[in-house]
Request: fold
Amino acid sequence: MKVANLLADNIKEFVEYVYKSQNKESFLLNADKMYQIKLLAEEFKFQITAEELHRINQFTWNEKYTHLLVNDFKKGIDVIDEYVVRNYDDLFILGGRLYTLNNLIKLLLKGEI
Reply:
């Protein structure tokens, strides 16, 4: 339950970071590529997934629905992770956040991956 809530918090923070980074003019980031990450996060509904994960695990552990949400999130984060790897020179700053999210997913889906 705590890991699911931690994952939900990290998803929210990732989405907020992408939105803030995309809005700023920064010499470190390629604005077009950050915009693509933003579109992917919206397409896979990361914000909604994070809110739903937090809602269902707020008081009790709902393993079945949590695993369903985490599997859906994993599909989206895999696409973003692949995009970041291909464009690592411009999106290196997202590497740490993606590493954290992937490890939390592995903790939740221990034997299923």
